[in-house]
Amino acid sequence: MSKTLTLKGKVFSGSGEGAEFIRLSWVRKQIAEKLDFIPYIGTLNIKLTAESVAVKKSLKNARAVEILPIKGFCRGRCFPACLIQDLKCAIIIPEVKNYPEDIIEVVAPVNLREKFKLKDGDMVEVRIMLE
């Protein structure tokens, strides 16, 4: 039985680290195999509302799609999701020390900013599908 969780927050510009991670061939390969799409090189950064931070915390015990690292990199936990107009995407939660609880990164097969004309400060909603 599947369950849907909704996270809401504002788009913001990140540091580019998400793009560097997605650019790695072993990451791209695992996303393609495990999430069934070839990711655009980059992530959409979202700063969550206070209510959504609480919802994100509930994902700690949820079954995730694992992006298994090569030596020297961190593991990533992914959750299949949908964004605006039911576009298939996924959120990636890097398992790095001190990663902010109020941030999610969305990976998709397209540049989400361009496709939906998103700019910093725009409010978006991401629906996560849990098994």
What does this structure look like?
The protein contains four helices and seven strands. The longest helix has 11 residues, at 25-35. Helices cover 23% and strands 36% of the residues. By secondary structure, it is α+β, with helices and mostly antiparallel strands. It has one domain: Beta Barrel (Elongation Factor Tu (Ef-tu), domain 3), CATH 2.40.30.30.
Which keywords apply here?
131 residues, alpha+beta, Elongation Factor Tu (Ef-tu), domain 3, six-stranded antiparallel barrel, 4 helices, 7 strands, 23% helix, 36% strand
Largest sheet: 6 strands, antiparallel, barrel
Looking at the chains present, what oligomeric state does this protein adopt?
single chain
Helix content: 10-25%
| CATH class category name | Mainly Beta
Order of helices and strands: EHHEHEEEEHE
The coarse overall form would be globular
Q: Which structural class is indicated by helix and strand composition? A: alpha+beta
Low-confidence stretches: none
Residue-averaged pLDDT: 90
Distance between the termini: 6 Å
Total helical segments: 4
Count structural domains: 1
Spatially, the strands of the biggest sheet line up as 1-2-6-5-4-7
CATH architecture: Beta Barrel
Count of β-strands: 7
Give me the Rg, rounded: 14 Å
Beta fraction? 35-45%
CATH topology: the name is Elongation Factor Tu (Ef-tu), domain 3
Q: Say which CATH homologous superfamily is assigned.
A: Riboflavin kinase-like
